[in-house]
Design a protein that fits this description.
The structure is a single chain. This protein is globular. The protein is built from 14 helices and no strands. The protein has 2 domains: 8-156, no CATH class; 198-295, Alpha Horseshoe (Serine Threonine Protein Phosphatase 5, Tetratricopeptide repeat), CATH 1.25.40.10. The protein is mostly helical and 316 residues long. 60% of the residues lie in helices and 0% in strands. Helix 7 runs antiparallel to helix 8, helix 7 crosses helix 12 (255-268) and helix 9 (200-217) runs parallel beside helix 11 (239-251).
Amino acid sequence: MSFEINRGLGKFNSAKDYHAALGLPLGADAAQIRKQYLKIARNLHPDSRSNDESQQLASQILSKLVNPAYQLLTQEKQREEYEVILRLLGQQLVNGQIPLNQSNPAVTAIMTAPDYEATYLLSLETLANQQYENLTASVAITGQISELNLALLWRQHGGSTGSTAVPQPTVTSATPPTPTMPASSPPPTAVSSSKSTQSGTDQYTEQYYRRAEEFFRKNSFQQAIKELRDALKLNPNSSRCHALMGQTYLKQGQITMAKVHFNQALKINPQEGQAVTGMETITKAERRAQQKSKQTIPPKPSSGGLFGSLFKKKDK
């Protein structure tokens, strides 16, 4: 099995995309890198695998894909050199020297969305949570993340849908795809009479949402996130699900992801109560932090130094 990333950013960087290998956004800080690495390492530990074949594959993925990415991103000099390469790739993208894969709907969404960073983070989050569940699909999913990274670089370096470097995507069908239920968490079959006029998708989304609410009340935040992800697969435009997802991330101290989901909820419904409250909470916390940082700035030392005042001549 090859562990080279021959799609997206990796295709133009010697089959390497270190952020994609860890399911991390470009620009992730040291704390994010370490946290994500430990999460993946636990998931790939031999004890978490049921048979020898799975254990061997997990060990190979860890040693050939995950560990090299972590080592580079945690070495300051190597990371800086890598960031230079990313900037050069971004410039080549905007100049039309590197094509983007517009057959990937998530790539097209990043290319066209006004709030492209939020769109990028939402798509990345979905893929990163699937990345090392089915190990035989891990490299393919990493390649999809790498395509998102390439699209993000294009936008960050000034790419726009009016650019001649990007051809318009081809529309293959006017019929929207029929939503399918995720296999990991099938919803209950009972449907109340009050929901009888709703579509099947809305009914299932509501059931996922209610289960997520229950997990949230019990402080089972990971379970709540899982239910909400399944709900958003069915209905990405549910402002309630995005708002509750934001509240869940906020409870865990993941402010960036909380903001992403709050903003998405408010984009869909500017009156979404949980999102409004959540953003107010974050704004107040950020203001307090700014005020505190200003108060802790040490006073500027006098030009005479520590003993200057002792030997300063008195004015006559």
